Amino acid sequence: MIKQDYLLRMIQEIITLLVNALLNRQKIRKESWVEYDDITRQILEVPSENLKDMSADEIIQRYEGDPNQMGKTELAAMTMLKIADEMEDEHLVLKSRLKQDGLSLLEYVQANSGTYSIQRMALIAMLKG
Predict the structure, then answer these.
(1) Is 41 exposed, middle or buried (0-12, 13-18, 19+ CB in 10 A)?
(2) Suppose 58 and one of 16, 21, 54, 85 were both cysteines; which one would form an S-S bond, judging by CB atoms 3.0 to 4.6 Å apart?
(3) How many C-beta atoms surround the C-beta of residue 83 within 10 A?
(4) H or E stretch including 9?
(5) Alpha-carbon distance 108 to 123, whole Å?
(6) pTM metric for this prediction
(7) Per residue in 37-90, pLDDT tens?
(8) How far is CA 129 from CA 43, 76, 119, 121, 126, in A?
(9) 3-class secondary-structure state, position 1
(10) 46 φ, ψ to 5°?
């Protein structure tokens, strides 16, 4: 139970960091990104870089049945959105797909998690606007 609570806290802290960076259009320093990426890899059990090759449906299926399903799904969505935000415009198709999949995952979490997040709603509104 303690491990579960700690994992949930870590997921929420990372999500908050990413939401703030995305909403404020801030870049994450390279050192912070490396640390964040290591923690994300441990939580999601997949390197962040591999999320580029996964669809929203694959991510939902990957964490189905996991006790932290919604947290991990939201963390994957936020990571995809941040990767897209940091990506150069020359990769426009991939950047667009990552944003769309990230948005789809956030909407899935909002509809199915049983929790309401003002941060999540603000980010969804920004991405749709």
Answers:
(1) middle
(2) 54
(3) 20
(4) helix 2-23
(5) 14
(6) 0.86
(7) 888 899 999 998 899 999 999 999 999 999 999 999 999 999 999 899 888 888
(8) 30, 22, 15, 12, 5
(9) coil
(10) -155, 140
Length in residues, the chain: 129
Where does 24-129 have alpha helices with state H? 30-44, 56-63, 69-86, 92-112, 118-128
Tell me which residue has tokens 């049983």. 114
State the distance between the two ends of the chain, measured CA to CA, in whole angstroms.
Answer: 39
The token pair that represents 115 in the structure block: 């929790």
Closest CA to 67 of 124, 117, 14, 11: 11
Residues 119, 24 contacting (CB under 8 angstroms): no
d(CA 69, CA 48) in angstroms, rounded, equals 17
Residue type at 59? I
